[in-house]
Design a protein that fits this description.
The structure is a homodimer of 335-residue chains. In chain A, 46% of the residues lie in helices and 16% in strands. Chain A is α/β, with parallel strands linked by helices and 335 residues long. A 6-stranded parallel beta sheet of chain A has the order 2-1-3-4-5-11, sandwiched between helices. In chain A, strands 7-6-8-9-10-12 form a 6-stranded mixed beta sheet, with helices on both faces. The first copy, chain A, is elongated and about 85 Å long. The N and C termini of chain A lie far apart (74 Å). Chains A and B meet through α4, α5, β2, α6 and α11 of A and α4, α5, β2, α6 and α11 of B. β2 of chain A pairs antiparallel with β2 of chain B. Chain A binds a DNA duplex (16 and 16 nucleotides) through α2 and α4.
DNA sequence: TTGTACGCGTTATCAA
DNA sequence: TTGATAACGCGTACAA
């Protein structure tokens, strides 16, 4: 008892497959009577069209691919949520791939997506290298990066201006009368989340006439909670007098809250902390984390919408600059 | 400049498409010389096979579909991570769908997956109704549920025994000399995460000879952080004397920590709290949340592995019972 | 060792 | 209003 094909329907209904096809694709040219008849036998046989066969001839897979370095975190989840919603609205499916920030796996996934004839690619939270970019260019489908960065010029991106956002975060701290401000971060050499945020921190300080002291930005190998513990302890050892802290991610910020608590420092009374990202995590910490929000779900949705535009028009997308905003909660002491 | 097909390669290399095909599928029957020649022109033309055409003839899409009620949370993310890893190992792609726990959307997605010829389906965190089950049965592909529940008998599942796990959580509280134990939950009528966990709570109490008092389990409409605030305040109003609390999710647990703090209660000194789920969130709270872990990533991986077995053998999977375990952190006062 | 030709399930272009 | 039939890109039995 195989899956019925259009042929089976045609035979059963004693019409040609062409007629069935027309009825299926609300084409024109058939009587209402045959239409009803065919629709009935379709129902009776439980027929449903084969998108693979359809895709072969139409050259459309109605599928896009999304690459994440890691899918298990909140950032990926929120981005994906936005993408899925936009895709569903266009009757597209989304294939998710995890790259582990690993070059080989990334290329593997790209090749796979190419073979599966995806019509567009969303590249998230990971640098789009020249190698990847030129491969995708050969694929001949549009790409867009989300919360990411491209080696090559002219690749559309959906992202916030990290330096400006970081700068605003620190300005906010300064506006609350803080002058002793430290920072914890991931690797300063990270071109996505490291360098620009540190530069923003620096800029805000200089604007305010506060001397920038490199030793006040402590970092570890990443932006997760676990890294925060290490970075924070480095910082606190060197500069116990700090009254405010800019954390380059929400996880780092939450981690700092925990560390501060363990050291007997009260947040925000003894130490004010502002995070970065605006994930759900921030509102769940104790105290709730003031943070600068990127709006990941919205970024996901936006990126998918732009990608679909690009798929339809054939024109490359201009990308979109996303506005960050500061979400005030309770981890910064208000003056 | 279209995408080159096997025909182009054949023409360019002056061989037949059959030969190219054989070489591609490491079949047998060609000289080393032609092999090299063909491989070279493939490289030169940048040819890559079309999985859609291939799938049409082989009747294999090398794709599975995963349904989530909501993809933006940590639970989904962790499950998906496990699934993706297992799928990648089998050279399968995974299509994610969001259902919003909405019957129509779920059926829409199921239909779409059917048309796209997915070879299996993973159903997560949402009841598999008879309607869904019979549709999938008609599809003729294996299903497996993760952290979920099926109306129909005989559907393989990967899940922990919620009642037993909840019972263990409360036993743990009792083992730390607690007798005044409350619970916050989502809807008691929820067959996935509501009823069984409340039953576990009840059982542990009865085992220990502690009287079960219905008014000590407070709930709101869901298991998220926001719901916890409401449930907790209901509970605290009625029973301010409680010394311990079982929260039916990590988010509820973390929410309780925040609420307790706001009321001036110290955790764990004045109030011990144990959560449920074992997501990354639990370790990031302040204090870190003791919880009973389900191991979502592992569940995701396991479910995918079982699904692939089922796809290969054609036999329905037996499913798998996952062991929960209590992860001790700092939200429960140790005696 | 290699090539020809058919079929997978559809859509689309012709004629009828 | 309908029905043959040629594609789409590929795998494979069969013939050479």
């Amino acid at each position: 008892m195989k899956r019925p094909t259009i042929k089976d329907v045609a035979k059963e209904a004693s019409v040609s497959i062409a007629t069935v096809s027309r009825i299926l694709n609300n084409g024109t040219g058939y009587s209402d009577k045959t239409r009803q008849h065919v629709l009935n036998t379709i129902e009776r046989l439980g027929y449903s069209p084969n998108a693979i066969a359809r895709g072969l001839i139409s050259k459309q897979s109605n599928t896009i691919g999304v690459l994440f370095p890691d899918v298990s975190g909140l950032i990926s989840a929120e981005i994906l949520q936005g993408i899925e919603e936009a895709a569903h609205a266009q009757e597209f499916s989304v294939i998710v791939c995890k790259t582990d920030s690993d070059g080989k796996k990334t290329m593997d996934n790209l090749r796979l997506l190419h073979e599966k004839q995806v019509e567009g690619i969303i590249f998230t939270s990971q640098m789009l290298t020249n190698e990847y970019a030129s491969f995708i260019e050969k694929m001949g489908v549009p790409v867009i990066t989300v919360s990411s960065y491209s080696e090559k010029e002219g690749i559309p991106a959906v992202k916030v201006d990290d330096e400006a956002a970081a700068c605003d975060a620190v300005r906010y701290l300064i506006s609350q009368q803080h002058t002793q401000i430290g920072m914890i971060s991931g690797p300063p050499t990270d071109p996505l989340a490291g360098t620009p945020r540190i530069n923003g921190y620096k800029r805000a300080l200089e604007e305010a006439g506060i001397e920038y002291d490199e030793s006040k930005v402590a970092w570890d190998s990443g932006f997760y909670f676990e890294h925060g513990e290490i970075a924070f302890s480095k910082l606190h050892e060197l500069h116990p007098q700090l009254t405010a802290l800019f954390a380059a991610s929400d996880e780092l910020g939450v981690s700092a809250i925990s560390c501060a608590y363990d050291l007997g420092l009260r947040v925000p009374d003894d130490l004010s902390i502002i995070g970065y990202d605006g994930t759900r995590l921030a509102k769940m910490s104790n105290p709730p984390l003031t943070t600068v929000s990127q709006g990941f779900e919205e970024m996901g949705r936006k990126s998918a919408e732009l990608l679909f535009e690009s798929i339809e028009t054939g024109e490359p997308s201009p990308g979109a600059a996303i506005q960050h905003r500061i979400v005030e909660r309770k981890s910064v002491k208000k003056k």
